[in-house]
Amino acid sequence: MQELTTVETVHEEGSWLFTVRNQYGEREEGILVPCDDSVEQRSTSSQSAADDGVAAWINRCTHEAQRFDTGRGVAMRNGQLICPRHGSMFDACSGDCDNGDAAGTTLPSIDITVSGDGTVYLTDDELTFVHQGGVDEDDGPDSTSHISF
């Protein structure tokens, strides 16, 4: 288990961007978003922490791999993540999309656990926490190796 942040921080900031390394060694971005799934329908997602006030997703739309959070937070309305490219909306708790170009798809989830004190932990066996912020925000040395043609 790797500590990420707190539920309180996610709710105060509106979202929380972080970078992970997958089982193939590639970096990916994840997002934590507020999730209040207690009022209407219960989530059918495997997202175990949805009941604890947050959910975690890979930071990209299922339609064209558009990032939800480009470093300025996730655009959300009425408990849904909004794709900035085409406006498809995904339920923050289940990851399901029922409109726009991404209709009928579900966001790839990231397994997390929330402790009794509200600390959020990464518990996904296929991912390793690298740092807070996006892939391009690693505080490593500048290098031309990041340039692509």
Protein model, in words:
It contains one helix and ten strands, in the order E-H-E-E-E-E-E-E-E-E-E. It is mainly beta. Strand 8 (112-114) and strand 9 form a beta hairpin. The termini are far apart. Residues 38-49 and 142-146 have low confidence and may be disordered.
Helix percent band = under 10%
Mean pLDDT: 86
* Uncertain parts: 38-49, 142-146
The count of DSSP E runs of length 2 or more, i.e. the number of strands, is 10
- Largest beta-sheet characterization: 4 strands, antiparallel
Separate helix tally: 1
Which oligomerization state do the chains in this entry correspond to?
single chain
- Arrangement of strands in the largest sheet: 4-3-2-10
Structural class: mainly beta
Topology record:
Elements: E1 2-6, H1 7-13, E2 16-22, E3 27-34, E4 54-58, E5 76-77, E6 80-82, E7 89-91, E8 112-114, E9 119-122, E10 127-132
Antiparallel strand pairs: 1-9, 2-3, 2-10, 3-4, 5-6, 6-7, 8-9
